[in-house]
Structures are given as C-alpha cells and as structure tokens.
Design brief:
elongated; Methionyl-tRNA Fmet Formyltransferase, Chain A, domain 2; 2 domains
Length: 325
C-alpha cells in the first residue's frame, strides 16, 4: 500500500516514522511551511519535514489547499501533485490545514485521520489539553475516515488510554503519539488486506476542544485548587499557567491540591499566601479559602524551572500577600 502523509508536529512525525518502519511506501509528504522560531526567529522545518527528508521522501508545503482561497495557484499545484502521485490512501495527523472535498476525493481509499481523543468527545484542535483540563479519567486515539465536518467522520479504530493524576499535556502527548503510531500501522495493515468496518460516531457525548489561547493561562485563584491544578497540567508545556507576583509574571509548572478539613475553612482572600518556606513549599488559598494549592515548581522570566523551595531562596514571597494582583 502506498501512503501519502499529511502532518506537521512531533505527534505526526511519530506516526510517519511508524508507517515507514512498518514497510509502507510513502511517496509524498505534506506539511506546513517552515516557521520562524527561537530567539533569532530563524526558519525551522517541521518535525514531519525533517523526518521525510531523512528518508528521501518528496515534501510539499502549501500555505493552503483551498482552490478559492488566498493561494489558489499553490493549492492547484498541490492538487495536481496529489493526483499525479501514485498512492492508495492519505493519512492525516495534526496537519493544521483544512482538507477541502477536492482533496478528500483524490486518494482511492480516501483520507484517514489520527485523532488524539475518544471521539466524539473532544473534536477539534486541542483534545489533549482539554481532556486534562476537564478532569477526564481517560482519553485515547481514534482512527477515523475523514469527511468535511470537523472530526465527524466514521470511526475505524478506537483505543483508550488512562489519564494519570500526574499527567501533563507534554507527557500525555508522547503516550498518545506512540499509541497513534501503533494504531495507524494496524489500520493500514487491515485496510490493505481484510478491510476495516466503519462505525458512525454517536451524537451523544459530542464536545469540542477549542484551540488554546495564551489568555487562558492566567491563573484565577477564585477557582478551586483542583481546577487550577488541572489547568497547570493542561498548559504544561504550553502556554504554561502563570500568575502575577510583585509585578512579575511567574510560571507555575507543577502543583498539587491540599485537602482541607471542612471545620478549618475560614474566609480567606483568593490568592492569599498561607505558607512560603522550604518545608511546606508555597501554599495559596483558592476559592475563598475552600481549597488550597501547594505549588511545587516555579519559574521567573529568564530563569530556570526550580523546585519551589529553591525558587523561594531567590524570590521573596511573604505569608499574607495576595498573588495575582
């Protein structure tokens, strides 16, 4: 089976590597154009492009695939390239561009997608972040047949993965990427031999994983400690939850929830510091004192990520002060 692959970040590169290692022929890869990154804002190739070039695979990097969009000539050239490239199927994983119907109908066996959630839950751009943020106990990978709707196509394979209490987006991403690589090889193997039955997604349980905004990363201590702790894990490694301390934006990398005795609950200000020392780390009142967040790892601008005890040696935080103002 000959597979055209479309994807951009590391999640997709893991799947492409699995497809290549399984012995499938990949005559062409589509990926996003090189983007500026780093302090020097130099152009950097995507993880998928780098892997494709290592294996001598032809790479196309259109800005758009829409024939009626901003780059119609580029889109038409890509359509022509796909039509002229001998292949059986297209695999898509975190590509970042919308595939119009004119693209979806080119591969003889259609286009299949590797999606990082248990569809129909968390359709959309940020399923891993949103699953952690929502407190889901499990997630997984869904291999689906693509159609015009946003992650609405029939499901070919679906496998669950537990979300552990200390899973952040970075860690869960890597586990799901590995699972996605295994599952796409299984899907392609079965499609090339006995075929795969497609199951229509149920209407019950549909929800959308909106793209992550940097504005969401500001910690609101009016929320419960549990909600904040999940946000810290969901936004690790990007965009990283943060709060204002002494006029400085401090990144919160790790934290845990302190269980409070209901009889000990008093009216405290949101963001009020209850302890700031090497033994108890940094304790912050949340939700009017109904819950407490213990912060385990912090980072100031230009500094390194530090355990809170080490951070406090070089950054003064006083008991009673309010964080977040």
């Amino acid at each position: 089976m000959k597979v055209i692959f479309a994807g951009t970040p590391e999640f997709a590169a893991t799947a492409l590597d699995a497809i290549i290692e399984a012995g499938f022929t990949v005559p062409l890869v589509l990926t996003q154009p090189d983007r500026p990154a780093g302090r020097g804002m130099q152009l950097h190739a995507s993880a998928v492009k780098q892997l494709a070039l290592q294996h001598g695979i032809q790479v196309a990097q259109p800005h758009s695939l829409r024939l009626d969009g901003k780059y119609p000539d580029e889109a038409q050239a890509t359509h022509n390239l796909l039509a002229d490239t001998e292949h059986d199927i297209m695999v898509v994983a975190a590509y970042g561009l919308i595939l119009p119907m004119s693209i979806l109908t080119i591969p003889p066996l259609g286009c299949i997608n590797i999606h990082g959630s248990l569809l129909p839950r968390w359709r959309g751009a940020a399923p891993i972040h949103r699953a952690i943020e929502a407190g889901d106990s499990e997630t997984g990978i869904t291999i689906m047949q693509m159609e015009l709707g946003l992650d609405t196509g029939p499901m070919l394979l679906r496998q669950t993965l537990p979300i552990l209490p200390d899973d952040c987006t970075g860690r869960l991403h890597d586990k799901l990427a590995a699972l996605g690589g295994e599952m796409i090889v299984t899907a392609l193997t079965q499609l090339s031999s006995i075929g795969l039955p497609a199951t229509t997604q149920p209407e019950l349980g549909v929800c959308y994983a909106a793209k992550i905004s940097k504005d969401e990363a500001v910690i609101d201590f009016n929320q419960s400690a549990q909600t904040i702790e999940r946000k810290i894990r969901a936004f690790n490694p990007f965009p990283v939850a943060h709060a204002n301390i002494h006029g400085t934006s401090i990144k919160f990398w790790r934290a845990e929830v302190i269980t409070m005795n209901p009889l000990a609950i008093t009216q405290l200000s949101d963001g009020q510091v209850l302890a700031a020392n090497s033994s108890e780390a940094l304790l912050i009142a949340c939700d009017g004192g109904r819950s407490v967040l213990r912060v385990l790892e912090l980072q100031k601008p230009g500094g390194k990520r530090l355990a809170t005890a080490d951070f406090l040696q070089g950054f003064d935080i006083q008991v009673g002060q309010i964080i977040g103002n």
